[in-house]
Amino acid sequence: MFRIAAIVLAVAAVIVALSTFTVDERERVIVFSLGEIKRVDPEPGLHLKFPIVNNVRKFDARVLTLDIPPDRFLTSEAKNVIVDFYAKWRIDDVGQFFRATRGDERNAQERMTQILRDGMRNEFAKYTLEEVVSGERITIMGAVRQQALDTAAELGVVLVDVRIRRMDLPDEVSESVFARMRAERERIAQDFRARGREEGERIRARADRDRTVIIANAYRDAERIRGEGDAGSAATYAQAYEQDEEFFTFYRSLLAYRNTMVGPENVFVLEPDSQFFRYFRDPMGGRARAGE
């Protein structure tokens, strides 16, 4: 009895397994009925089917990577560029995908590879080598993706993105390109240097002019102050002379003695009665006699 129950359970399990299938949210599913498409994209979960009559094909619904072997493309100058690029794609219409490729992912990849290569070839032919190297790759990738969208839709797939992984120049081209780029950078550097020298000369000329003006103004102010000082000094001397002529003469003589009698070799050849030494002979300068 136990064996019969086990057999019944096993048969029931087989029937259930053959009559049901599950759909994951990461999958796109087609249900066939005797070889013809019956249902497309059932909801994720558990579903029923008729054994033998129905069969199920599952495809990956995630974003997939299409690695394309590096290829050479010609620029508008007929220069070769070696481009390594890839694409991101996913199945959008699983029914159309199956009808266009018979469900063969390799067939879809080969067709998309050819589509993208043709698009790259057309876009690279619009730009010079310098433009391609210097920064037009983003524009090229966007244009290639836009051109391939309609063709990819015929395969039931959508191109999510197209990216250039690496771009190299053939050996016979790279040296000439680098030489031209070096010459261009050197020309730009020389232009900057020339403008710098010109600006430096302008700054130096402005500084020399300002220096001359400042010195001239300082000399003018110094002469004016010196003149005012001399005038003030002369006025002071005149006032002192008017107040006491004899004292003023005595003071000026003392200044003359101090300024001339310096150093060990100050020799004077003068007459004994010279006026220069009259205060040595008569310290009172005649005042004592005048007071007598």
User: How many β-strand runs?
Assistant: 9
Query: What are the secondary-structure elements, in order, as H or E?
Result: HEEEEEEEEHHHHEHHHH
Helical fraction:
55-70%
The largest sheet, given as strand count, sense and whether it forms a barrel, is: 4 strands, antiparallel
Mean pLDDT comes to: 80
DSSP strand content: 15-25%
The gross shape turns out to be rod-shaped
| Residue windows where pLDDT falls under 50 for at least 5 positions | 287-292
- Helix count equals 9
What radius of gyration results from the CA coordinates? Answer: 54 Å
By secondary-structure content and strand pairing, the structural class works out as alpha+beta
For the record, give the distance between the C-alpha atoms at the N and C termini, rounded to a whole number: 175 Å
Task: Describe it.
The protein is an alpha+beta fold and 292 residues long. The chain contains 9 helices and 9 strands. The chain has helices spanning 2-19, 94-101, 105-124, 129-134, 137-154, 171-243, 245-260, 278-281, 287-291, and strands at residues 20-23, 27-33, 36-40, 45-48, 54-60, 64-67, 71-74, 80-91, 157-168. The strands form 3 sheets. Strands 6, 7, 8 and 9 form a 4-stranded antiparallel β-sheet that branches. A hairpin with a 2-residue loop joins strand 2 and strand 3 (36-40). The protein is rod-shaped. The N and C termini lie far apart (175 Å).
Task: List strands and helices in order, with pairings.
Blueprint: H1 2-19, E1 20-23, E2 27-33, E3 36-40, E4 45-48, E5 54-60, E6 64-67, E7 71-74, E8 80-91, H2 94-101, H3 105-124, H4 129-134, H5 137-154, E9 157-168, H6 171-243, H7 245-260, H8 278-281, H9 287-291
Antiparallel strand pairs: 1-4, 2-3, 2-5, 6-8, 7-8, 8-9
Helix pairs in contact: 3-5, 6-7
